[in-house]
Amino acid sequence: MPSVTSSSLLPAATVTTSNSESILSALPVETIRAVSTLTGLSIASASAAPTAATAPGTSPATEKIITIVVGSPTLNKSLVFTPNEVTAQPGDILQFQFSRINHTVTQSSFSAPCQPLSAPGVEPINSGFIPTTANATEVVTFDVPINDTKPIWMYCAQGPHCMLGMVLSINA
Left, alpha or beta for 107 (phi > 0: left; psi -120 to 50: alpha)? Predict the structure, then answer.
């Protein structure tokens, strides 16, 4: 679990890294931040929803960051979420770390695992396409706060990735 040493809020359309390369654009998220870890790697991070403020006089909920690697540094094994089964509690943050080639984190349903979730009154989780290169020096992340323990099913919407097994279950 990386420790964050600094962070700054940036405009919601583009994150620019320390070497001025634009790495995210038009990402459908509410919060984007650039952070730097103790390891020295830059991380660009996008949050799927804002975190709730703590009411005065109360203590903040304990957040646990659960890391999920999207893809793999090994090209032959790049169509995976690692781990592909997660148990999370309200207040936890799922941190999707994108590795090698173009992937998405897209919410689906159990009955239609390779189709975007379409449910009345529900804003589905969707990172959009996040391309990365094999020798990237930065890790792009997508953070998803967990509000309850209802099951969530996710998949990669890039080409045939889902049909080739790139799926993930949360609290299932």
Answer: beta
What is the pLDDT at residue 41? 37
pLDDT of residue 75: 66
Tokens, residue 149? 């323990």
Instruction: Enter the pTM of the model.
Output: 0.67
Average pLDDT estimate for 141-169: 96
Bridge partners of residue 155, in order along the sequence: 106, 167
Query: What φ, ψ does residue 69 adopt, rounded to 5°?
Result: -85, 130
Give, in order, the Cα–Cα distances in Å from 130 to each of 38, 47, 75, 88, 165.
24, 14, 16, 24, 18
CB 18 within 8 A of CB 3: no
Tokens of 131: 């391309």
Whether the link from the prior residue into 83 is cis, omega within 30° of 0, is yes
C-beta separation of 167 from 105 below 8 A: no
Q: Are strands 152-155 and 138-145 parallel, antiparallel or unpaired?
A: unpaired
Give 100's contacts (C-beta < 8 A, 6+ positions apart).
Answer: 71, 72, 73, 74, 75, 78, 132, 133, 134
